[in-house]
């Protein structure tokens, strides 16, 4: 049993994998009482944009007076920020209490960190009586631990791109099929802007399962972070062009939920919430003069969208990049190097990080803090990107003006 949060977090974070099947966790969740099915849940899958869509949707619901829980991964600064209510992390005391209460059950079933997080989330949200729980898929969809939920209010698939091919398949259609695994019979489903093949697959699956499918309508980019969607004009706080897609998707999900749940939307409150909504490490500006941007894009689809926004900035540009070995880091590097005056490849403390020895033809720096210091001296715009794990390490170990931990 744990008496302080550091002990509890060290223990749970050392339980990363157990190599059990999805069916095993499904049985575990059943033995735990299938409490996740008592939550009014929105389940969000996709290659990119999941976290941003979750955050925008949560803030929109909160603007209407609802109590909203979110479950996202990986964490930003502390493991506790994976489980949040109305933007606040689960408390130390609540996390410890729920782990201690269920410790024997967790040990007996040899649960992984993510599986325990999910059960802790469900119990915490029920105890705190959240109105809605917005849950982000960890990996894929069909075999993800979050998919033990029986019938969410709404399922959202944000985007389909190449990522985790070792687990999800080598084509976009194969990857889309895995994401579509979250779709349950008779549910409402919302999809973002997918290619035609993926759209056709989603249409086929939702028709077979008797679902109501909504496809994201076009939004109009009005410039200066403003856009028009469903005849209303909105503004977001982010300078990233790709966030207009995620904000529109969240708005459509918000409208669908208002119909399902029969609540009226206060549009002015919704507009204010969307404008002030911030999702960390997605084109997050953490310093000015020079401008330093953090972005957790970690696959080629995300990197391409990120570079499109970075290109719009004026002045000299440096990109500081690091990634995990299991990602398509070679393709990401080939992309980012075309969008800056200087690329610095670096590393950070993680057991699966790229080895700098293989980048003899590039600028490399073992210590990313030195790379940042160097870039600050010489460039107007500095983009730090390549991995959400890298972002977390940077935020914890480098002091920026605009981040208050």
Quick description:
By secondary structure, this protein is α/β, with parallel strands linked by helices. The protein is 39% helix and 18% strand. Strands 4-3-2-5-1-6-7-8 form an eight-stranded mixed beta sheet, with helices on both faces. A six-stranded mixed beta sheet has the order 12-13-17-14-15-16, sandwiched between helices.
Shape: globular
Examine the coordinates and then state which fold CATH places here, giving the name of the CATH topology of the largest domain.
UDP-N-acetylmuramoyl-L-alanine:D-glutamate ligase
Radius of gyration using CA atoms only: 21 Å
**CATH architecture term of the largest domain:** 3-Layer(aba) Sandwich
Range of helix content: 25-40%
**Total number of helical segments?**
14
- Total individual domains: 2
Mean pLDDT: 95
Please state how the strands of the largest beta sheet are arranged side by side. Answer: 4-3-2-5-1-6-7-8
CATH classification class of the largest domain: Alpha Beta
Task: Please state the oligomeric state of the protein chains shown.
Answer: single chain
Main beta-sheet strand count, sense and barrel state: 8 strands, mixed
Distance between the termini: 28 Å
Structural class: alpha/beta
Strand content: 15-25%
CATH superfamily of the largest domain: Mur-like, catalytic domain
Annotation, overall tally of beta strands: 17
Unreliable runs: none
């Amino acid at each position: 049993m744990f008496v302080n949060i550091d002990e509890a977090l060290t223990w749970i974070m050392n339980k990363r994998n157990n190599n059990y099947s999805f069916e095993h966790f499904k049985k575990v969740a059943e033995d735990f009482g299938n409490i996740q099915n008592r939550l009014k849940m929105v389940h969000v899958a996709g290659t990119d944009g999941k976290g941003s869509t979750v955050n925008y949707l949560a803030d929109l619901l909160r603007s209407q007076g609802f109590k909203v829980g979110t479950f996202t991964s990986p964490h930003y600064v502390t493991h506790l920020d994976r489980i949040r209510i109305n933007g606040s992390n689960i408390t130390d005391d609540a996390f410890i209490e729920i782990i201690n209460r269920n410790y024997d059950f967790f040990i007996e079933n040899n649960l992984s960190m993510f599986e325990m997080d999910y059960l802790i989330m469900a119990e915490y949200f029920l105890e705190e009586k959240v109105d809605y729980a917005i849950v982000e898929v960890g990996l894929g969809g069909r075999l993800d631990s979050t998919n033990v939920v029986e019938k969410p209010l709404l399922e959202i698939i944000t985007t389909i791109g190449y990522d985790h091919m070792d687990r999800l398949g080598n084509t976009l259609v194969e990857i889309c099929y895995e994401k579509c695994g979250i779709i349950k019979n008779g549910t409402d489903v919302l999809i973002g802007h997918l290619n035609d093949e993926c759209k056709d697959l989603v249409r086929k699956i939702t028709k077979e399962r008797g679902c109501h499918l909504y496809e994201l309508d076009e939004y109009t980019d009005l410039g200066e972070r403003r856009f028009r969607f469903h005849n209303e004009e909105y503004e977001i706080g982010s300078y990233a062009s790709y966030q207009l897609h995620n904000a529109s998707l969240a708005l459509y999900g918000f409208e669908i939920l208002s119909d399902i749940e029969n609540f009226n939307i206060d549009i002015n409150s919704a507009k204010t919430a969307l404008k002030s909504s911030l999702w960390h490490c997605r084109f997050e500006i953490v310093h000015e003069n020079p401008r330093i941007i953090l972005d957790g894009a970690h696959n080629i689809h995300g990197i391409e969208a990120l570079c499109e926004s970075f290109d719009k900035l004026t002045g000299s540009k440096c990109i500081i990049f690091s990634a995990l070995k299991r990602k398509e880091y070679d393709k990401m590097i080939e992309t980012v190097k075309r969008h800056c005056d200087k690329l610095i490849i670096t590393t950070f403390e993680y057991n699966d990080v790229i080895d700098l020895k293989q980048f003899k033809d590039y600028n490399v720096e073992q210590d990313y803090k030195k790379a940042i210091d160097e870039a600050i001296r010489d460039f107007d715009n500095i983009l730090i990107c390549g991995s959400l794990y890298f972002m977390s390490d940077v935020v914890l170990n480098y002091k920026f003006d605009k981040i208050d931990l």
